[in-house]
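Researcher: Sequence recovery benchmark, item below. Answer with residues only.
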């Protein structure tokens, strides 16, 4: 297991409790593009704790979830224990052994960006049946737009201890470019969608969310603790709640 996988796996409980679920309209658009039912075979790459899995499983398909992290996989197995159509494989996509043209749908939820493009797309293409679909989607966290003072204070704390990149909102152009990427690898009929949502966090819960961010956990002590303490203090000072503004993108592509 590499460093980023270990970071997520060590924060499995925080991940399950504090990462958001995906926008319901995303599944509406996905199923309109690729209907699935009890005859369908589906693969999820990087299932985590199952945040994206229930609407897929509710369609009745046979879902195989790949998750290399033992802690994450254990939580996913428990969360999805009532589904008889769910099968968990404690492996990466790179290690997973499977015949070509096996799946009707392959998807990755905030996971595919960790896989090298030049490996990931051809592997997915090979595993899909003709006419099969690849869906990649991710959420992108944005700052609290209503609590301006809080956002400013948190930005100041970051510049003291982390020197982050200036936050940029994920745009329609970004989604269009990601969708077009699949064409390089033989996919056709690409489409994309954007969704917007919010989630409120207490100061303590927001610390749990930050513990699921690999770049935060890679920060050396004592700066990491000072960063977390400073953000916690800023939230507590400004009413005790922070609202994260999420943009979720969905890119769809079909194998001819």
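Model:
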């Amino acid at each position: 297991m590499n460093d980023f996988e270990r970071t997520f796996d060590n924060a499995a409980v925080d991940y399950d409790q504090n990462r958001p679920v995906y926008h319901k309209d995303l599944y509406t658009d996905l199923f309109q593009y690729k209907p699935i039912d009890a005859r369908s075979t589906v693969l999820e790459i990087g299932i985590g704790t199952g945040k994206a899995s229930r609407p897929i499983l509710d369609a009745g398909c046979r879902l195989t979830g790949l998750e290399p992290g033992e802690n994450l996989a254990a939580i996913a197995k428990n969360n999805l224990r009532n589904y008889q159509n769910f099968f968990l494989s404690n492996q990466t996509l790179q290690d997973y052994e499977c015949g070509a043209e096996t799946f009707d749908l392959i998807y990755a939820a905030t996971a595919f960006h960790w896989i090298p493009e030049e490996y990931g797309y051809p592997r997915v293409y090979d595993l899909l049946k003709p006419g099969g679909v690849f869906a990649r989607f991710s959420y992108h966290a944005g700052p609290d737009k209503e609590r301006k003072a809080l956002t400013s204070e948190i930005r100041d704390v970051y510049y003291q201890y982390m020197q982050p990149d200036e936050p940029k909102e994920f745009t329609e152009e970004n989604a269009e470019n990601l969708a077009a990427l699949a064409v390089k690898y033989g996919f056709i009929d690409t489409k994309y969608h954007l969704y917007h949502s919010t989630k409120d966090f207490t100061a303590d819960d927001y610390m749990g969310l930050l513990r699921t961010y690999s770049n935060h956990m890679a920060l050396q002590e004592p700066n990491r603790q000072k960063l977390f303490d400073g953000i916690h203090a800023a939230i507590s000072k400004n009413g005790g709640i922070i609202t994260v503004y999420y943009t979720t993108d969905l890119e769809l592509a079909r194998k001819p």
